[in-house]
Amino acid sequence: MLTGTGPGEYGPPMLSLEGKTALVTGGGRGIGRAVCLLFARLGARVGVAYARDDAAAEETLAAVRDAGAEAVALKADLAVEGEPERIVRETEEKLGSLDILVVNHGIWKPAPIESMTTAQWDEMLAANLGSARGLTAEAARRMIPRGQGTMVLIASTAGQRGEAGYAHYAASKGALIAFAKSLAMELGPGGIRVNVVAPGWVLTDMSRQVLETDEGRAVVSSIPLGRPGQPEEIAGPVAFLASDLASYMHGHVLSVNGGSVVLG
């Protein structure tokens, strides 16, 4: 007779990250900030990783601490070799053994294929994909000996259906999905869960300038729910996948896009 090894017949009574240590990249603003705040409210210690905006990171850090969580800000250019590994190490040094890694950072810049340069292509893949390798590799080195941990990688609908004028961005996010699935096959036997959240249009500082144009409003009108998402609406699914409530979800791509891309 087969028996499970999960949290029990009915599972935990509520979503909780009590006592967990989490590292969230791109944590200063937008989706990353919303994830950091929700994780704090759910009881986690939070490493807030960010690239440039010191003021935004300090605001996030203060809000996380106001929510009662222990937290630290970690500044890094994750496209630079060695920096992804450094912030994983520093998270453990300052907050304790890493339980949750959320790979949320990234860049999004237009570049029509006929004029896209090698530099633009390389910049996009280094920021969105190469840095994910460094983060997950260092996290895996620390999680494997403990036989547990969870990783949530933030992709995009662009990686599922493509995006005109942003082929390099779509390629990076599609590759991120394939990368996460490969990690799931590799790390699952060691007790480490890996999943993906693929957001659609979300109203953040990065997307606002597009969504508030006539072209952007036309895009929004095509979304079945009739509006872009809010960062908090992405943070909820991320927290769910990071929690024990999702203890049997592994190698999954969770689409959170208001119905704009419907996948089976």
How would you describe the overall organization of this protein?
This protein has helices spanning 30-41, 54-66, 83-95, 118-143, 158-161, 167-187, 205-211, 214-221, 231-242, and strands spanning 21-24, 45-50, 71-75, 100-103, 149-154, 192-199, 253-256. With 264 residues, it is α/β, with parallel strands linked by helices. The chain has one domain (21-201, 230-255): NAD(P)-binding Rossmann-like Domain (Rossmann fold, 3-Layer(aba) Sandwich). A seven-stranded parallel beta sheet has the order 3-2-1-4-5-6-7, with helices on both faces. The model has no long low-confidence stretch (mean pLDDT 93).
Q: In whole angstroms, how far apart are the ends?
A: 31 Å
Give the neighbour order of strands across the main sheet.
3-2-1-4-5-6-7
Proportion of strand residues: 5-15%
Q: Ranges with pLDDT <50 over ≥5 residues?
A: none
Q: Which class best fits the helix and strand makeup?
A: alpha/beta
SSE layout and pairings?
Layout: E1 21-24, H1 30-41, E2 45-50, H2 54-66, E3 71-75, H3 83-95, E4 100-103, H4 118-143, E5 149-154, H5 158-161, H6 167-187, E6 192-199, H7 205-211, H8 214-221, H9 231-242, E7 253-256
Parallel strand pairs: 1-2, 1-4, 2-3, 4-5, 5-6, 6-7
